[in-house]
Amino acid sequence: MQNHRDRPSPMPKVAYHLIHPDRRNTALVFASPHSSRDYPTWFLQRSVLDARAVRSSEDAFVDQLFAAAPRLGAPFLQAGAPRALIDMNRAEDELDPALIVGVRKSGHNPRVSSGLGVVPRVVANGRAIYDGKLSRAEADARIESYWRPYHAALRNQMKQAHALFGQAILVDCHSMPHEAMDQVARKGTQRPEVVLGDRFGASASSEIVDQIETAFRAAGLCVARNTPFAGAYVTQQYGRPSRGHHAVQIEIDRALYMDEPRIEPNADFDAFRALLTGVIAQIIEIGRPSVQQLAAE
Question: Could you write out the DSSP letters of every residue in 94-147?
Answer without folding.
Answer: ---TTTBTTPPP-S--HHHHTT-SSS-SB-GGG-BS-SS-B-HHHHHHHIIIII
